[in-house]
Amino acid sequence: MSHEHVSYLELLARGAATEAYDRPVLLARASGAGPEELAGLEEAKQLALRVRAELEGRRRREAELSALFETAHDLAGLRDLDAVLRAIVQRARSLLGTEVAYLSLNDPAAGDTYMRVTEGSVSARFQQVRLGMGEGLGGLVAQTARPYVTDDYFGDGRFQHTRTIDTAVRDEGLVAILGVPLSLGSQVIGVLFAADRRARVFEREQVALLCSFAAHAAVAIDTANLLAETRSALAELERANDIIREHSGVIERASEVHDRLSQLVLHGGGVHDVADAVSEVLGGTVEFTEEGAGAARRSGGHAVREGDDWVAAVSAGGETLGALVLHGQPDLDPVDQRTLERAALVTSLLLLARRSAGEAEQRVRGELLDDLLDAPDRDRRLLRERAARLRTDSAAPHVVLAARIDRAGGAADTDAGGRESADRQRLWSAATHLAATRHGLASARDGGTVLLLPLGPGESAAELARQTARSLGGTLREPVTVGASAPVRDPLDRPDQVAVAYEEARRCLDALRLLHRSGQGAAAEDLGFLGLLLADGRDIDGFVDRTVGQVVAYDRRRGTDLVRTLDAYFASGMSPARTKDELHVHVNTVAQRLERVGRLLGPDWQSPARALEIQLALRLHGLSDAVSGR
Fold first, then answer.
1. Can you give 199-241 as a three-state secondary structure string?
2. Quick one: which of 176, 184, 199, 204 has its CA closest to 101?
3. Which is it for the CA torsion 364, 367, 372, 376, positive or negative?
4. How far apart are CA 535 and CA 486, in angstroms?
5. 355: which residues sit within 8 A by CB, 6+ positions away?
6. By C-alpha distance, which of 443, 286, 440 is closest to 370?
7. Most distant CA pair in the chain: distance in Å?
C-alpha cells in the first residue's frame, strides 16, 4: 500500500474535512508525479470520499433512529401532550441543524391557525402569531397535504403572502423554511416547520426525517384526543345508566349488569368475571377473545351481528384489545346491544388498568433498585417501607445479578442500534416479571438489566445465576448471560453494599462473555480475575483491542505515551497532579494527553464501568507485551 493511500486512511480515521482529501494529490503533482500515479491518487481520493460520505450517513441515520425511538418512547408514556410536542420540535431542530423549528395547529372553531410550539425563536410577535386558513407557506402545505420548501421566503410567489405573516417572519429573520403536514387520515391538522435565518437547501433525507417527526406529532395529538374521548365515554356511561333506569324489563337487566360491572371494577374483578356477569344477565354465553373482532373493529364502538352471534370490539386509543362475543341470543334487543357495548368498554378499562398497574409496579421496582445503587444514603426506613409495599423479601440474603442478551456474532446491519434498544426493552420486561414473581427488584442499566433477588433456603449465588439465565433465556428465546455477586445480607440496611455487589456482578458478566460462556450464569466467586486470564488468547486480544486498541494504535503511529499515561493516571488514583509527578511532565501535558484519550475512547471513558474495563485491558496489554518481549 502506497504512502498516499495510507494518508487517505489516516484522513478517514481522524474524520478530516473534505478539503483535506485534495492534499495528497496536490503534493504528488508538486513533486512531479506522472499521469498514471496522479490518476491512481485521484481514484483513491474519490473512493475515500465515498467511504467518508457513507460513514457520515450512517452516523446521521443512527442519530435519527435514536431520536425517533425516543419520540416513540415519549408517546408510549404520554402524560403531557405539550411536553411530547416540545420534545419532537427540539429533536427536529437539532437533527436538521436549523436555527428555528416550530409547530402550528389549526383551530376549526376560530377558523385560523396558531403557533403551538416554537424552538429557537426570539421574536414574541412570531411566537404569538395567528394566521388565516390557507395563508403563507403553511397554508400551501395544508392545502396540498404535501411538504414544501423555500430557500428565499420573501422571493417565493407560490404561496399567499400577507402583511401579518411577512411581518412576523421578517421580525424573526427567517429566510429558508421547510414545512411538512401533520395529518390524521386525509385531514391536515397542522404543520411542522424547520427554518434558518440564511439561505440553505434542505436535502430529501431531511424532508423525510421532518415528515417522520410530523407523523409522531400527529399520533401524539390523536392519542390525547382519544384519551379525552375515553373520558367522555365514561361520562356517557354514567348518563346512560340514568336513562336505563327510566325503562322496565330489558332496562332492568341493563341496570343489573351495570351495577355488577361496577362492583367488579371496584373489587378488582377481571375480564372473565365481566363476561360471566353479562352472560348471566343477557341469558346467553359471553366470552372474551383476543381475536375475531372482525367487523366490530370498524363499527365505531357498536355491537354488530355476525351470524348468530353478537360481537362488540374491546378497544382503547385506536388499539383493538379483543372482543366480547355473545352466543345464543341472535335477536338481541337494542338496549341489550348497548349493554354488551358498555361491557366491552368496561373490559377495555380493566385491561388498560391491569396494563398500567403492571407498568407502574415495574417502574417502582426499578426506581427503588436505582436508589439503592445510586443514592445509598437515602433514609433506610423509607427504603424498607417502599420495599414492603412491593412485597419484597427483605429478611433473606440477596444477590445482585447483571444480565445481558448475547447474540452470536453480534448485529451486523445498519439497524444495530435499534435492535439493541429493542433487546434492552425486552430483557427489562422479562426481568421485571421475574423479579415480581421472586419478590425482588429489577432495573434497566448499562445496556442490560440488573436484578436484586433473594436467595431461597439452601440456594447459592451461582445456582441463582444459572436459574436466572435459563429463565430469561427461555422467555426471550435468546441466550442471556448472567453474572452474580456474592450474597448481600440486609441490603436495605446496608444499601452501600448493593452498588459494590453490582460492580462485582458486572465483572463476572464480562468474564463470562470473554470466556465464550454466553447464555450461562455464574457467580463472581466462581470466576474472578483468573477466569479472564485463562480465556483463549484471541479473546483477550479482542477485549484489549475493543477497549484500548485505539490508544495503543495511536501510540504506535505517533510515538506517543498515552498508554503509559493511562497506567500512571489510574495508579495515581485518577489524579492529574500525582500523574505528572509520576511521569515527570507538566500537568498541562497530562491534561492534553487525557483529552486525546477522551477523543479516542469516548466522553464516558472515566465512568466507573468503563474505567474498570480500561484498567483491566491495560493490565492484559502489559502482560501481553511482557510475554512477547515487546
1. CCCCCHHHHHHHHHHHHHHHHHHHHHHHHHHHHHHHHHHHHHH
2. 176
3. negative
4. 22
5. none
6. 443
7. 106
Question: What number of other Cβ atoms are within 10 A of residue 380's Cβ?
Answer: 14
Torsion of CA 30, 32, 38, 42, to 10 degrees: -10
Mark the ranges of the chain whose per-residue pLDDT is less than 70: 1-6, 8, 12-13, 15, 48-49, 51-79, 237, 240-270, 290-301, 316-319, 321, 347-366, 376-394, 408-418, 524-540, 542-543, 623-630
Q: What is the pLDDT of residues 211-248, one digit of tens each?
A: 888 888 888 888 877 877 777 777 776 775 655 554 54
Cell matching residue 500: 459494590
C-alpha cell of residue 566:
493511562
Is the four-CA dihedral 548, 552, 553, 557 of positive or negative sign? Answer: positive
Cα separations in angstroms, 290 against 312, 356, 476: 12, 18, 22
SS3 for 311? strand
Helix axes 608-628, 562-571, angle to 10 degrees: 120
According to DSSP, residue 607 is labeled S
Residue whose C-alpha cell reads 411538504 in the numeric block:
147
CA distance 505 to 125: 57
- Looking only at the bridges linking them, the beta strands covering 521-523 and 480-484 are parallel
Q: Of 359, 210, 353, 326, which is closest to residue 257 (Cα–Cα)?
A: 326
- Residue 175 corresponds to which amino acid? V
If you search the block for the grid coordinates 423509607, which residue do you land on? 382
Q: Which three cell numbers stand for residue 605?
A: 471513558
CA distances from 397 to 50, 382, 502 (A): 58, 19, 15
| Cα-only R_g, the chain | 32
Angstrom distances, CA of residue 581 to CA of 11, 568, 572, 593: 35, 10, 9, 15
pLDDT value of residue 147: 94
* DSSP-assigned letter for residue 455: P
pLDDT tens column, 517-527: 889 998 865 65
CB burial of 65-88 (b: ≥16 within 10 Å; e: otherwise) equals: bebbeebeebbeeeeebeebbbbb
